[in-house]
Amino acid sequence: MNIYDIAKMCGVSTATVSRVINGGSVSEETRSRVNAVLNKTGYRPNPYAQGMNLGSMRVIGIMVSEINDLYYVRAVSTLEQSFRRLGYDIILYSVEPTPKNVRKYIDQLLSRKVAAIFTVGSVFHEVQDELSTDGTIPIITVNLETENNECYNVFCDDYAALEDAVRFLYERGHRSFLYLYDNETVSGTAKLHGFRRGIKACGLDESAALVYNCPRDIYAARETAAQLLTEHSDITAVLTSVDELAVGVLKAATSLGKCVPKDLAVIGYDNSILSDCATPRITSIDNKVDDLCTLGVNLFSDLTEGKPVARKYILNCELIEKETT
User: Fold this and answer.
1) Is the N or the C terminus of the chain less surrounded, counting Cβ atoms within 10 Å?
2) What pTM did the predictor assign?
């Protein structure tokens, strides 16, 4: 049942039905007749397409937790360029992901009549219950799977990516691993579990896998890796949760006189510009940030056109082999 069907049943134009739905000017007789059919059929207009037809929403709201993070910068850039081509502007908020803050900024975005809200990053998982607009506009989460039935999720399989990376190194002859990670967000935890699953899947015991938390800082990673590689000289492969840590590992290897990849293989994560600026260029896992954002934009477009969409879309990551493996 769509607006054309309603108009045909009422014997009026679709424009008249639209005016009734949106509180426009029509005669009371016509309004009563249309409302009677609407009530009888249970017809509910698509709120996203309805807002677009009113021409009141040509702005997209975007929320990130850190504006200086390379992943978020790339995501926002992709979203902004994609929406600009569609004739939208963006409003960007850097939000500390607490329930109070998230609710505050969503309300602000709603008051500014945005057409949709995008969140970027799995850090919003703990406040997913606050990701609500009462169905008035869509909320699309990039790199986050939620149980919130108001949200549309586009995300990558971080778990499988790390498991596959361990298998890749195992097949190259590596048997002793170090994993450096920077946080325990949903994405970070999935990576960690994927690493451990990879170790198990290769038939190795836990003693073959050293796991260590490290701040997301190149120089902190250099000091941490240098200490661990000295204490555990049998380690021949290092995987990291972000490319910044992988750069630190390279610096540590240089300070210890280790040749990469002959003595030590290194795999980063994000396939960021850092992985290409490093010497040697770092093999890194591409978590498809550009593809996720593009998918999110296309999902929004389908919603505004009333097309059927799924609540969750998952993409596979890709290991981009360069010079450190």
Assistant:
1) N
2) 0.83
Residues spanned by the domain of 181: 158-286
Task: Kindly state whether residue 51 falls inside one of the protein's structural domains.
Answer: no
- Phi and psi angles of residue 323, each rounded to the nearest 5 degrees, phi first: -115, 5
Distances (CA, A) of 230 to 246, 266, 267: 17, 16, 19
- Per the listing, tokens 């000295």 go with 230
Compute the half-sphere exposure of residue 86: CA atoms within 13 Å on the CB side of its CA: 22
Residue 246 domain-assigned? yes
Do 129 and 69 share a structural domain? yes
Burial label, 142 (beta-carbon count in 10 A; 0-12, 13-18, 19+): buried
Residue 121: name the closest of 96, 85, 86 by CA.
96
Token pair, residue 298, equals: 């296309």
- Which residue from 79, 299, 122, 111 is spatially nearest to 103, judged by alpha carbons? 111
Q: How far is CA 109 from the centre of its chain?
A: 20
Distance (Å, rounded) from C-alpha 177 to C-alpha 225?
12
